[in-house]
Amino acid sequence: MNYIDSFVLPVPRENVEAYRRLAQEAGEIWREYGALKVVECLADDVQPGQVTSFPQSVNLKDDETVVFSYIVYESREHRDRVNEQVMKDPRIADMDPKTMPFDAKRMFWGGFEVMIDL
């Protein structure tokens, strides 16, 4: 079964196009090093919840939207190899978190083993 890295982050609405360009560029780099698929999703139907929700998870502000993204790999080992190469690539290594079109401090992520894939 595949392995997935998933990310959730807040993006100011005025920065959505800048984020799209950054995500496109970064996704192409991940694919160069072997990621099977890179998907970026812009919130369309996400509401604040009573206990938890996508907006609450990133402390969403009124002028922001949520992005959910994921990268598909063959396995955890494959993901580790790809990410090691990506992090050495100067196109990624030179990116400054302070100039990102989103608040990286409110982004969260994790790696997941695929349990069911229909």
Describe the structure.
The protein is of the alpha+beta class and 118 residues long. The chain has four helices and four strands. The longest helix has 17 residues, at 16-32. InterPro entries: Dimeric_a/b-barrel, DUF1428.
Short key terms for the protein model shown above:
Alpha-Beta Plaits, DUF1428, Dimeric_a/b-barrel, 118 residues, RNA signal recognition particle, four-stranded antiparallel sheet, alpha+beta
CATH topology: Alpha-Beta Plaits
CATH class: Alpha Beta
Q: Write down the oligomeric state.
A: single chain
**Tally of discrete structural domains:** 1
Work out the number of β strands: 4
Topology diagram in text:
Blueprint: E1 3-12, H1 16-32, E2 37-42, H2 54-57, E3 64-73, H3 76-88, H4 90-93, E4 108-113
Antiparallel strand pairs: 1-3, 1-4, 2-3
Protein name: RNA signal recognition particle
Pfam family, one: DUF1428
InterPro entries: Dimeric_a/b-barrel, DUF1428
